[in-house]
Amino acid sequence: MLTAEQREIRSLAREFAGSEIRPRAAEWDEARALDDGI
Predict the structure, then answer these.
(1) b/e per residue, 3-36, with b = 16+ CB within 10 A?
(2) Cα–Cα distance between 28 and 35 in angstroms, integer?
(3) Which residue segment(s) compose the domain that 37 sits in?
(4) Taking the model in full, what pTM does it have?
């Protein structure tokens, strides 16, 4: 069971991944690199 704080952190991480990582994932996979700005 997660605490309210843990659920909030999970939600924020999910939002970040969806908006910042997912849109660029294919490009990074192809280049075999990650954006250090993340």
Answers:
(1) eeeeeeeeeeeeeeeeeeeeeeeeeeeeeeeeee
(2) 8
(3) 1-38
(4) 0.69
